[in-house]
Amino acid sequence: MTADTNTIARDGGKTVTDAGSLVPPDARALNRMTVSLLSQPVNLGLARVAVAAFFSQLDLMLSELEEIKVAVSEAVSNAILHGYRREPDGWITVSAAIYPETMEIVVEDRGEGFDGEPRPPAGDGEEEGFGMGFALMRSFMDEVVLVSKPGQGTQVTMRKKARVPAPAHPSAGTC
Q: Burial letters for 14-50: b for 16+ Cβ neighbours within 10 Å, e otherwise?
């Protein structure tokens, strides 16, 4: 995304600046993963399970993992429904990273994109979800940053504070 991209950032209804981010700009990820999926509803479960499996290495409660899975589902669903208008051949990238004290999930599409705030559908019965996706993401995550540009796609970055264990010795667990 370019610098002239429309940015909407929310943290409990407040705008978040770079200084307010949960991840310091110089923080290096302790671990990360990326998966690319076609914009097909059948891939929602895969995105949810991949991210949950990745974060299961942390000391999370089952309810926290469920909240993360719902937030991922909402972001991927939005990419399928709104970014690609249900066209099954668009690519969605889901990335997850663990930083000291923070988990981060990024869901990105190269679909339609938009200007302004996300709005509920017009109510013609064609769209599902009734615009509740971002409300759910914001309720389950500590920080949600939305970046979108018409014709270039949308990126949703979600962050949550976490109890991240100290990194193991580099040779631990190797074969």
A: eebeeeebbbeeeeeebeeeeeebebbeebbeebbeb
Question: What angle do helix axes 133-140 and 62-78 make, rounded to 10 degrees?
Answer: 150
Which tokens go with 167?
A: 């990194």
Domains and CATH numbers, the chain: 6-18+29-161 (3.30.565.10)
Q: List Cβ neighbours of 136 (8 Å cut-off, separation of 6 or more).
A: 70, 71, 74
Whether the CB-CB separation of 105 and 163 falls below 8 Å is answered with no
Predicted TM-score (pTM) of the model is 0.80
Burial state string for 98-122 with b = 16 or more CB within 10 A and e = fewer than 16: bbeebbbbbbbbbbbbbeeebeeee
pLDDT per residue as tens digits for the range 69-106: 999 999 999 999 999 999 999 999 999 999 999 999 99
